[in-house]
Amino acid sequence: MKGDPVQRAVLLGEYIVQHGATVRAAAAAFGCSKSTVHKDVSWRLRGISPTLFRQVQAILARNKAERHLRGGAATREKYSRLHHTAHPAH
Is pTM, for the whole model, over 0.90? Predict the structure, then answer.
């Protein structure tokens, strides 16, 4: 997403708050890099909208605390799929 970095930072922040989105999900939704999202919501947003900044930081902190759970679930699903395709039913 090209354009005004200030506007982009606010839109990214609002998206993260509304959807409880991860940095990766926000980057995919807006067509920009994870680095851009992180810089916008961690650096630019602080000066633009301190209230939105605090809301975003709370969600990112929760996502960071939960990421080991998402990773474990993804690994379980991966091996479950591999197991089911490697051993077809008789």
Answer: no
